[in-house]
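Archive maintenance. Older records in this collection stored only the sequence; we are now back-filling the structure field for every entry so that each record is complete. The fields below show one back-filled record exactly as it appears after the update. Entries are processed alphabetically, and A24 family peptidase is next in the queue.

ARCHIVE ENTRY
Title: A24 family peptidase
Organism field: Candidatus Pristimantibacillus lignocellulolyticus
Length field: 168
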Amino acid sequence: MENYWLAILIVIISFYYDVTSLKIPNWICLSSLICGYIYCIYQEGWAGVWLATIALIVGFVPMWLIYLFKGIGAGDVKLFASLATLIGIGSIVELMVISFLIGGIISVLFIGYRTLLKIKHRVRYYYSKYTVEANSNPTLIALGIKKVHHFPFMLAVTPAMIVVYLLR
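Back-filled structure field:
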C-alpha cells in the first residue's frame, strides 16, 4: 500500500503544477517512473522489470491515443505511464476510467456554468446595449480554467486516484 501513498503524493504535486501552469514537469514523471521500477524490482525481483515495462505500455498507449486527438496534454500521458509502473496494470486502468468519468462530470458542470454566465450576460446586453464577454471569473482562473473549453485534467485525476486507493 505504500506505493499508493507515493502515487497519491505524486498526483497531488502534479495537481498543483497542472492547475497553476497547465503543465506537468518532466521531473515528476521521471521520479515516478524510477520509483515504479524500483518498487517492481523490490517486489518481484528482476521479473519486476518486465512487469513495470508492460504496465508502462498499458498506461501509455491509451492516453497517447487520446493525446493525438488533443484530448489531454503530453504531461498527462507521461504521468499515467509512470504511475502505471508504480500502481500496476489493474489500478491504472481503474484510474483511467474513473478519471474520465469524473472529467465528464466536471465538463458537464462547467458547460452548464458557462451557459448560465452567457445567459446572464445576454440579458445584460439586451438591457444595457453594450457587449459583454463571458470571461472566466477569478474562481475558475484559480482552478486553472482560462479557456471556455479547457480545464486541467488533474482536476479529475486527483479525486480518481483517491477513489482507486479506497477501492484497494
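Update note: The chain has seven helices and no strands. The two ends are 8 Å apart (CA to CA).
Entry marked complete.
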